[in-house]
Amino acid sequence: MIKLFSLKQQKKDGESSPRSGNQKKASAAQLRITKDINELNLPKTCNTEFPDPDDLLTFKLIICPDEGFYKLGRFVFSFKVGPNYPHEPPKVKCETQVYHPNIDLQGNVCLNILREDWKPVLTINSVVYGLQYLFLEPNPEDPLNKEAAEVLASNRRVFETNVQKAMRGGYVGGTYFERCLK
Amino acid sequence: MAECHEADQKRWNNLRKVLERAGPFCHPEFEHDSDLLTFILTSCPILIIGAGGLGCELLKDLVLMGFQQIHIIDMDTIDLSNLNRQFLFRRKDIGCSKAEVAAAFINKRVTNCQIIPHFCKIQDKDESFYREFCMIVCGLDSIVARRWINGMLVSLLEYEDGVLKTTSIIPLVDGGTEGFKGNARVILPGMSACVECTLDLYPPQITYPLCTIANTPRLPEHCIEYAKVMLWPKENPFNVPLDGDDPQHTGWIYEKSLERALEFNIPGVTYRLVQGVIKNIIPAVASTNAVIAGICATEVFKIATNCYVPLKNYLVFNDVDGIYTYTYEAEKKENCLVCSQIPQTLTIPDPTKMKLKEIIALFTESSQYQMKSPGLTTMIDGKSKTLYMSAIKSIEERTRKNLNKTLVELDLRDGCEILVADATSPNTMVVRLNYLSADVEMK
Lengths: 182, 443
Hints:
The complex is a heterodimer.
Chain A: H1 4-13, H2 28-38, E1 46-49, E2 58-63, E3 75-80, E4 91-94, H3 124-136, H4 146-154, H5 156-168, E5 170-172, E6 175-177
Antiparallel strand pairs in A: 1-2, 2-3, 3-4, 5-6
Chain B: H1 2-11, H2 13-19, H3 35-42, E1 46-49, H4 53-64, E2 69-73, H5 98-109, E3 114-118, H6 127-130, E4 135-139, H7 143-155, E5 159-160, E6 163-164, E7 172-178, E8 181-187, H8 210-215, H9 220-235, H10 247-263, H11 271-279, H12 286-305, E9 314-318, E10 324-328, E11 344-348, H13 356-365, E12 375-380, E13 383-388, H14 393-399, E14 417-421, E15 429-435
Parallel strand pairs in B: 1-2, 1-4, 2-3, 4-7, 11-15
Antiparallel strand pairs in B: 5-6, 7-8, 8-9, 9-10, 12-13, 12-14, 14-15
């Protein structure tokens, strides 16, 4: 137990000098992201870019798949880690226009661990692997780009041609995709 | 004058009965003392965070219990819908600061008290402000704000050779209500479970899979989330982020949600539901607030005077059906990101000579740490700074030059904290630098 009354007397008597300067303590998010970034173990198809090395909360992830439908493509994701990390997932957007059943044309990504299945034990590394997996195994069951999902479900050949067309830069259906081959 | 004195004597008679004599239910270490009354009347400043439903009750309770020096902080203004339960406010006060109106009301109504209002966010105040209080009581509706004040109080703790200095502890009494349910808890930062230790007790925010929202909505909530998550950023109707308090914004979301619901034949989208989904509104019940505030105020009194054993340490209350309370002891989490981060002290003989690479060598080579490849960051003037990190090539390249700089050249001051992350430990370690030659002139 603590005796507040006598404590306050003690405090007055031996007034400890306040620490020098305005030293804000690092937040829980900062503590955790330092660890996450220091231990990032990227597959060889992935790379990161930190526009400001002092800001570990804002960065880009570049995925260049070496197999599957999206081989030879180059896809950029932006990561924003909020003050509530790791209790809230990082905000991830796809900056490259991509013809993909689980990524829409505004860059929203449908990946369970980025929303409903996020848990604080997951790390930035988990998200990187999750995103990489989306390119290896696009999932027509959970569509965000419905047209792409329908094509993938009905005819993989046509889907493959469409992906190639989009990555080389061109129209698929009524939508124009920027070239994103590396 | 004599009359006044007599009245004053009488006024606290009930408190005297508790504080100036022993009793069978007292704290085993309670020492009855007439100075205790003077202490709570004159030199026990309390901060109330939040001047809403709980805050009004807390302020009234504490001031009538003898705490005459109270500060109250709230960033909100009074709304018509507050008046049914936030009884310090009147219709004429709508639009004014909650903290200011509450303080003025009590100062006018109760003699001899000095309530000082702060019309701002808790984040606008720094540690020198919070350090002045004997205790802090929260009546908040936000988890973010609770975590912030919790983090602040933990950061005020001081350690001597790894042992917590009890003089640096500011107890936190936290109340919360949601409809007919409520809870009250006592937190002794550094000693008992903190807000962060028990964060998973809060219900998770309900989220729906993005693809369901986008393609296969089934619930009215899916339609509202669609308007909020997908349509708002895309159409950006007012060129500002969505604000749940702006009726124009809520109206827009309502309209778009209805369209969506019509398209998929989903019933149940109402304006009220839209408000609920985008603002997470929970109806407030005046009696629950009164009960929880009463419990919190009692705890404040017990801790301040040591007259009874305080709540240990988490009480839940529910009067949906009859009345139910249950108290249990929430446990401190061993690897809590906030309160288990006892900073290790690293003594530096001469910061003008010590280079960053020597510190890193210390972490990797000394038998105490044996790290593999530590990454080091710090906070300078409230901004984060990466000192060195070898894991990421682009960061390594741009921080490599720091290795040969001395601590002074890196702007690291005496007493500052560096964060050290390494694969060999589950948590980031906090290391406080202690300079032997403390009078080093900073450039």
